[in-house]
């Protein structure tokens, strides 16, 4: 399997193949607008603005699996991200990231880059996966790892 074999649904409802991002460095993040880590949207947007022309794509996947900290409707999520954090990077339809109903992309990411002590489960909102230009998952970052803290890892792949 490759990351490019997965399809996702955009926040506006269109099906999109991740193959569209072939050749780019990807930072894939499960997000939640009502989470205490939501200020990281600002740092993620800054990474997007600073590095999109060099081949970085930040991809946000809203999820309500952690204390129901995401808005109900995709349109409301998109609006909150835009108004509160100026988000212009791609957001996708709300998904589950853990359990039987987890999106296949997240099952793949968690399997390719296990967390602490080899756990595959996503621990919380704003877990980040860094994917190289060949589609290989190279790193997993904890929710407490800010976008600024992982900037150097991104720069190495660009």
From TrEMBL:
It comes from the Bacteria. The keyword Transcription regulation does not apply. The lineage of its organism: Bacteria, Bacillati, Bacillota, Bacilli, Bacillales. Pfam families: GSHPx. Belongs to the glutathione peroxidase family. Keywords: Oxidoreductase, Peroxidase. One of its GO terms (molecular function) is peroxidase activity. The keyword Calcium does not apply. InterPro entries: Glutathione_peroxidase, GPX_AS, Thioredoxin-like_sf, Thioredoxin_domain. The active site is at residue 35. This is Glutathione peroxidase. GO terms for biological process: cellular response to oxidative stress. Residues 1-158 form the Thioredoxin domain.
């Amino acid at each position: 399997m490759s990351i490019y074999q997965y399809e996702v649904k955009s926040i506006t409802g269109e099906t999109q193949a991740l193959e569209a991002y072939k050749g780019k460095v990807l930072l894939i993040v499960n997000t939640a607008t009502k989470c205490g880590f939501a200020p990281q949207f600002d740092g993620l947007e800054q990474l997007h603005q600073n590095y999109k022309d060099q081949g970085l794509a930040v991809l946000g996947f809203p999820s309500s699996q952690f204390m129901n900290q995401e808005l109900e409707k995709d349109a409301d999520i998109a609006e909150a991200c835009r108004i509160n954090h100026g988000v212009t990077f791609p957001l996708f339809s709300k998904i589950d990231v853990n359990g039987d109903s987890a999106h296949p992309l997240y099952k793949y990411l968690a399997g390719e880059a296990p967390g602490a002590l080899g756990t595959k489960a996503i621990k919380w909102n704003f877990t980040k996966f860094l994917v190289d230009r060949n589609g290989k998952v190279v790193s997993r970052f904890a929710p407490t790892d800010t976008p600024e803290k992982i900037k150097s890892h991104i720069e190495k792949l660009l």
